[in-house]
Design goal:
CATH superfamily of the largest domain in chain B: Glutaredoxin
CATH class of the largest domain in chain B: Alpha Beta
Distance between the termini of chain A: 67 Å
Largest sheet of chain A: 5 strands, mixed
CATH topology of the largest domain in chain B: Glutaredoxin
Oligomer: heterodimer
CATH superfamily of the largest domain in chain A: NADH-ubiquinone oxidoreductase 51kDa subunit
Largest sheet of chain B: 4 strands, mixed
Distance between the termini of chain B: 36 Å
Largest interface: A-B, 49 and 35 residues
Strand content of chain A: 5-15%
Radius of gyration of chain A: 27 Å
Structural class of chain A: alpha/beta
CATH architecture of the largest domain in chain A: 3-Layer(aba) Sandwich
Shape of chain B: elongated
Order of helices and strands of chain B: HHHHHEHHEEEH
Number of domains of chain A: 5
Helix content of chain A: 25-40%
Helix content of chain B: 40-55%
CATH class of the largest domain in chain A: Alpha Beta
C-alpha cells in the first residue's frame, strides 16, 4: 500500500457540494501536481462533516487542521504553505478550532463536536464513500461476516431486540420486534426494504448517511435479509438526492463485485441482492404502505392496516421496512453487542439520534447526540445559540408531523416519549429553531400548506379536513379571524388525528395543536386585535415612520417601490398605508431606525 | 396515435424500447421505465404513455394515474433550463418568496410555467436540502445560495446568453 504523509479530506456532502467543494477538489489536484506533491498527499472526498454552515469544509491530517468556507482562491495557499512548507494557514481555520495560542484543537474539543456521539454518522466525513476498501478498513462488512458465520437468524433478531433499538424514521417502533414479525410471517418470498424517502422540509440526516457511508446501509440490509429470510432488498430513495443515488449505485456495484451482495455471501448459502428504486416527488411515499405501493409501480397511496407490511408488504409478500438511520446503527450493534448500545441513551430510548439543525441557529448542520440530551445543550452548546443574540422562542421538531416546543421545555431530555408528552414528536430529526421574529401562526400555516399540498387525497379527513384547517389559518393570518376559530381548529385537529388513514393525516394537525397549546395568546392577538406580534403576517402589518426620529433625509423615498412615502425634505415623512406593500425596503435603508413595523 | 411524432422521435422510441426490454421482466417495472422515458423525451406525452401501456400490456389509465400522482413526472415539455426555487422551511423564512417573485417578474412566468421559447421553466420546489445556504435556487444542476432579489437578473442573464 502506498504511504501518504498527509491526507486532505474534502467534504463532498450536498451542502458543501453546493457551495463548490468539487471545484475545490479540482484546484487541489492541479496545485498538488504543480508542486509535485501528488505522491505525498492524498485527496479524499468524504461524506458530510455536519457543519454545513461553514462549508465548504476541508480537513488536513495528520494535524487535523479544520479549514472552513474555503474558496478556490484559498487552495494554492493551503498547498504551498501547509502541505509544502508545513505552516498551517491559521486565518482560514474554523474559528472555534484553534486555541488562543494558535494551537489546533482536536475535533472532539471543538464545541460543535464536543457533546456529539457519532454512531450512525461515524464514517461520514471520515472515509471516501465511493471506495468499499475504506469502509472495510473501518470494520465494514465485519458484522455481516459475523452474523452469517457465527449466528443463527434467531440469535440475530434476539440481539437486535436486546439492544432496544427503535425506528429512527420517527415513530420509534422497536426494530427487533419488526424483524421478528417479518421472520415469523409465512411466505415463500420475503423482502427487506429501506425507507430513504426523506421528505420533511429541513431534514437531511438520511441523505448524509447515504452520501457519506452508503455501504453501512447495504451491510445492515443484508444482515436483516439473513435474519428475516429475505433474498431481495429495495432501497426507495428520493430522486431529489442525486449524489446519494450515485454513491449508492457505486456501492452496490462494488459490493456485488466483492461478493458481499449476490449469491453465497461469505461462502454460505445466504444470497441477497439490493436494487434501487427512485421516488418521484411525493411526500406521502415516506409512509410505509404508500412506499411499498410505489415500489410496485403504483400511485403512492397508503392502505389501511392490518395487514402489516411484515405480513403482507411489497408484491403481497412479507416485507421488512426500516429507515436509513435505523439501518446505520445495526452493524455496530452486532459488533459491539446490545449491552454497549443499551448503555447509551435514556431508559426507553437507546442509542443516539441525528438532528438536522436549521433556521435561527449559528451552526446550521447535522449533529448526532445521545438520546436524553436536552434541547438547550443541542441549541446552545452544539448549535452555538441564536445569531444576533436574539431570544429563543420555540424549536420545531418532527417537521410537518411534529410540533413546537417552547422555552419552558428547553431542559427536557429529548427522547421519543418525552417529545410526544410535550405535544411534539421525534420525527425523522429536523430541528428548526425560532426566535421572536417568527410568528407561530404563520409557522403552523406553512406546515399545513405543505401537508395539504402533499395529501394523497385518498381519505377525506386528510384531503378535506386539512384543507379546511388551512383556510381557517389563512383567514387568521390575513386579519379575518373570528371568535371561535381556535376552538374550531382544535376540534378539527383532534378529529383528523383520530380518523385519517395514515401517518401523514394523523399527524398533520400537530403543528397547529402544539402552537395553540403553547402560543394561544398569539392566535388571539391575530384574531381579536388583528395584530401579528412577531411582525410577520403581512396583512396585519403596518410600517410607520416615527416622526420624532425621522430627520427627513429622503433615503426611504428612493427605495420605496410603490412610491408610498411622501413628505418634504428635512421634515418627517409619512407612509401611505394604501400604497404600502410592506416590503420592508425602507426599514432596512433608514439610517436613524425611525421606521418600524408593528 | 399520431404517426408523425412517432417518426420524428423514432430514435427516442428505440431507446425507450431498450429500457422497456431491460425492465419489463423485473418486479414493479413501471416507475423505473417512466423515469427513463422522461429522461429520454424530457416529458411524458400521451404517445409515450400509450407506448409504455402497450409494451407492458397494462391500461394507459394506470400510467396516467402514476404520471399525475408524482410531482416529478410532467405531461408538459420543460424548458432547457429548469429553475427550482426552494420553498423549504429555512429558505422560506430567509426570503424565498421574494426570490420567487423576482424570478416571475424577470422571466414573465408564473411558477410551473415554461417560457414560449422553451428556454426556462420556473418552479417552486420542496426543500433542496441546502439549508445552510438559504435562500437557494437551482438551475438544472447549478446551485445558487445566500441570494437576495437583486442577484436574480445577473444569474438569469448568464443563461440567456448561453
Amino acid at each position: 500500500m502506498e504511504f501518504y504523509r498527509s491526507h486532505v479530506l474534502i467534504c463532498g456532502g450536498t451542502g458543501c457540494h453546493s457551495s463548490g467543494s468539487s471545484d475545490i477538489r479540482e484546484v487541489f489536484q492541479t496545485e498538488l501536481k504543480k508542486n509535485h506533491l501528488e505522491n505525498e498527499v492524498l485527496l479524499v472526498q468524504t461524506g458530510c462533516f455536519g457543519l454545513c454552515e461553514v462549508g465548504p469544509v476541508v480537513i488536513v491530517y495528520p494535524e487535523g487542521a479544520f479549514y472552513s468556507r474555503i474558496t478556490k482562491e484559498d487552495v494554492p495557499r493551503i498547498v504551498s504553505e501547509h502541505l509544502l512548507k508545513g505552516r498551517i494557514v491559521t486565518d482560514l481555520l474554523y474559528h472555534d478550532s484553534i486555541h488562543e495560542d494558535d494551537a489546533i484543537k482536536s475535533l472532539d474539543e471543538v464545541n460543535f463536536y464536543k457533546k456529539q456521539k457519532r454512531l450512525a454518522l461515524r464514517n461520514c466525513g471520515v472515509i471516501d464513500p465511493e471506495k468499499i476498501e475504506e469502509y472495510i478498513a473501518f470494520d465494514g462488512y465485519k458484522a455481516l461476516g459475523k452474523v452469517l458465520t457465527e449466528m443463527t437468524p434467531e440469535e440475530t433478531i434476539e440481539l437486535i431486540k436486546a439492544s432496544g433499538l427503535r425506528g429512527r424514521g420517527g415513530a420509534g417502533f422497536p426494530t427487533g420486534l419488526k424483524w421478528d414479525f417479518t421472520a415469523k410471517a409465512k411466505g415463500d418470498k420475503k423482502y427487506v426494504c429501506c425507507n430513504a424517502d426523506e421528505g420533511d422540509p429541513g431534514a437531511f440526516m438520511d441523505r448524509s448517511v447515504l452520501e457519506g457511508d452508503p455501504h453501512c446501509v447495504l451491510e445492515a440490509m443484508a444482515i436483516a435479509g439473513y435474519a428475516v429470510g429475505a433474498d431481495q432488498g429495495y432501497i426507495y430513495v428520493r430522486a431529489e438526492y442525486p449524489i446519494a443515488v450515485k454513491r449508492l449505485t457505486i456501492a452496490i456495484a462494488q459490493a456485488r463485485q466483492m461478493g458481499l451482495l449476490g449469491k453465497n455471501i461469505f461462502g454460505t448459502n445466504f444470497s441477497f441482492d439490493i436494487e434501487l428504486r427512485l421516488g418521484a416527488g411525493a411526500f406521502v411515499c415516506g409512509e410505509e404502505t404508500a412506499l411499498l405501493a410505489s415500489i410496485e409501480g403504483k400511485r403512492g397511496e397508503p392502505r389501511p392496516r392490518p395487514s402489516l407490511p411484515a405480513v403482507k408488504g411489497v408484491f403481497g409478500k412479507p416485507t421488512l421496512l426500516n429507515n436509513v438511520e435505523t439501518y446505520a446503527n445495526i452493524p455496530q450493534i452486532i459488533l459491539n453487542g446490545p449491552e454497549w448500545f443499551r448503555s447509551i441513551g435514556t431508559e426507553k430510548s437507546k442509542g443516539t439520534k441525528v438532528f438536522a439543525l436549521g433556521r435561527k441557529i449559528v451552526n446550521t448542520g447535522l449533529v448526532e447526540v445521545p438520546m436524553g440530551t436536552t434541547l438547550r445543550e443541542i441549541i446552545y452548546e452544539i448549535g452555538g445559540g441564536i445569531p444576533g443574540g436574539k431570544e429563543f422562542k420555540a424549536a420545531q421538531t418532527g417537521g410537518p408531523s411534529g410540533g413546537c416546543i417552547p422555552a419552558e421545555h428547553l431542559d427536557t431530555p429529548i427522547d421519543y416519549d418525552s417529545l410526544s408528552e410535550i405535544g411534539s414528536m421525534m420525527g425523522s430529526g429536523g430541528l428548526i429553531v425560532m426566535d421572536n421574529d417568527n410568528c407561530m401562526v404563520d409557522i403552523a400555516r406553512f406546515f399545513l400548506d405543505f401537508t395539504v399540498d402533499e395529501s394523497c387525497g385518498k381519505c377525506p379527513p386528510c384531503r378535506i379536513g386539512t384543507k379546511r384547517m388551512l383556510e381557517i389559518l389563512d383567514r387568521i393570518t390575513k386579519g379575518q379571524g373570528e371568535e371561535g376559530d381556535i376552538e374550531k381548529l382544535e376540534t378539527l385537529g383532534k378529529n383528523i388525528k383520530a380518523s385519517a388513514l395514515c401517518g401523514l393525516g394523523q399527524t398533520a394537525p400537530n403543528p397547529i395543536l402544539s402552537t395553540i397549546r403553547y402560543f394561544r395568546e398569539e392566535y388571539e392577538a391575530h384574531i381579536r386585535d388583528k395584530k401579528c406580534p412577531a411582525g410577520v403576517c403581512q396583512a396585519l402589518l403596518q410600517i410607520v415612520i416615527q416622526a420624532d426620529l425621522c430627520r427627513g433625509c429622503g433615503l426611504c423615498v428612493k427605495v420605496c417601490p410603490t412610491v408610498a412615502i411622501s413628505g418634504e425634505r428635512k421634515s418627517p415623512y409619512v407612509i401611505d398605508q394604501n400604497k404600502c406593500i410592506k416590503c420592508g425596503a425602507c426599514l432596512e435603508k433608514c439610517p436613524f431606525k425611525a421606521i418600524v413595523k408593528g | 396515435m399520431s404517426t408523425s411524432i412517432l417518426q420524428k422521435d423514432r430514435e427516442k422510441f428505440t431507446e425507450l424500447q431498450k429500457v422497456i426490454d431491460e425492465y419489463k421482466d423485473k418486479e414493479g417495472p413501471l416507475m423505473p421505465i417512466m423515469h427513463k422515458a422522461q429522461e429520454i423525451f424530457g416529458y411524458l406525452p400521451m404517445e409515450v404513455q400509450e407506448y409504455i401501456a402497450n409494451a407492458l400490456d397494462i391500461p394507459v389509465s394506470d400510467i396516467y394515474g402514476v404520471a399525475t400522482f408524482y410531482s416529478q413526472f410532467t405531461l408538459k415539455p420543460k424548458g432547457k433550463y429548469s429553475i427550482g426555487v426552494c420553498m423549504g422551511t429555512a429558505c422560506y423564512v430567509k426570503g424565498a418568496q421574494a426570490i420567487l417573485d423576482e424570478l416571475c417578474k424577470e422571466l414573465n412566468l408564473k411558477p410551473g410555467d415554461t417560457s414560449d421559447d422553451l428556454n426556462f421553466t420556473l418552479e417552486a420546489t420542496r426543500c433542496l436540502g441546502a439549508c445552510g445556504l438559504a435562500p437557494v435556487i437551482m438551475i438544472n444542476d447549478d446551485v445558487y445560495g445566500r441570494l437576495v432579489p437583486s442577484d436574480i437578473k445577473r444569474i438569469i442573464d448568464k443563461y440567456r446568453n448561453k
